[in-house]
Write a structure and sequence with these properties.
The protein is of the alpha/beta class and about 325 residues long. It is built from 12 helices and 12 strands. The protein folds into 2 domains: about 170 residues, no CATH class; about 120 residues, Endonuclease, Chain A (3-Layer(aba) Sandwich). The strands form 4 sheets. The protein has a 4-stranded mixed β-sheet, with helices on both faces. Helix 1 packs across helix 4 and helix 4 crosses helix 6.
Length: about 325
């Protein structure tokens, strides 16, 4: 197809767009009911006006979807992939006229082609997270609304059960927990909650960024509600990732932990230095397991699987 047409950002580039903007309302209100793939640009002439250096799209080559096999190409700037099957309605949303981005649900399914199961779980958790990363400052910010939910991801995958990677996408959803507050919180959940058989520590955490309310004790507390990163709300145990920016006031942190202890909560903090050390990270997990009275029955092959899990999550191993 010659001339101008729709440009469809997909795969790794769509994921970058989704994670670097507060797109929830736009992604929902601008979903396409028609198929923008039918009128997409497939020639270099048609793609020449597309700015591949926009920071929002991530590092080039920018991944695009085309409807003609002759339009497939891999250059320094563009990676155009051909899609044979018909799109499910609502697979893209309009960023502006003629420029479309894959929805969170379609992006999740597409990324199953290029990811291991734990990497796909990480992608799913980040798409269901409460945060995004500001494209200019690289700072973590809160979304005004969730991009998607595990239930929406599941429904989309089931509606496309014949698509490549759909079985892996369904399987990875077992490990997706919503409401992560940062990339490292996502990784922390996967390392400590993933099954022992897959290299994790199988700790039975139930929620992320769970609000603990002081209730009748609020009169003696500095605040009425405390948000905790990774929580077992039944055992009243939490792990917290201490990022560089959010935990600079050590006196305030100590007071907060004392107040949570007064409400019966056990809090286990972990910082980047400890989390990046494979052995130190295990020791923290063992301490939490001991407090929870969870027995860690690790096989002789567990350590190798643990290090592989860390590699897949881009953590030092």
């Amino acid at each position: 197809m010659a001339g101008q047409g729709n440009i469809l950002i997909t795969d790794e580039s769509a994921l970058h767009v989704l994670m670097h903007g507060d797109w929830a309302s736009r992604a929902e209100s601008s979903k396409t009911h028609e198929n923008p793939l039918l009128e997409c640009s497939t020639t270099l002439e048609g793609l020449s006006a597309f700015n591949t250096r926009n920071l929002l799209y991530g590092p080039p080559p920018i991944s695009l979807l085309v409807n003609d096999e002759s339009g497939k190409r891999w250059t320094n700037d563009l990676l155009c992939r051909y899609m044979r099957t018909e799109l499910t309605p609502g697979s893209f949303f309009a960023l502006r006229e003629g420029l479309f981005v894959a929805t969170p649900e379609f992006t999740y399914l597409r990324m199953a082609r290029f990811s291991t199961e734990v990497q796909l779980a990480e992608i799913g958790m980040n798409l269901c997270a409460r945060y995004y990363i500001d494209v200019k400052t690289a700072k973590v910010k809160d979304r005004t609304a969730f991009l998607t939910t595990p239930a929406k991801l599941r429904a989309f995958v089931i509606a496309n059960e014949g698509a490549r990677g759909s079985r892996k996408a369904l399987s990875a959803l077992r490990w997706v927990m919503p409401n992560s507050g940062s990339p490292y919180e996502t990784k922390m959940k996967l390392v400590y909650c993933h099954p022992l058989s897959r290299g994790g520590l199988s700790l039975p955490f139930t929620d992320m960024n769970y609000d603990v309310r002081a209730g009748r004790l609020s009169r003696m507390m500095a605040q009425s509600t405390y948000s905790l990163d990774l929580v077992d709300r039944f055992r009243k145990v939490a792990m917290e990732y201490d990022g560089e920016e959010g935990h600079l006031d050590f006196s305030k942190d100590k007071r907060r932990r004392n107040e949570l202890a007064a409400m019966g909560w056990a809090l286990f903090p972990i910082d980047k230095q400890v989390f990046h050390d494979p052995d130190a990270a295990i020791r923290v997990g063992e301490q939490v397991a001991h407090y929870m009275r969870v027995r860690l029955r690790r096989s002789t092959s567990w350590e190798g699987k643990y290090l592989q899990l860390r590699r897949e999550l881009n953590l030092p191993a």
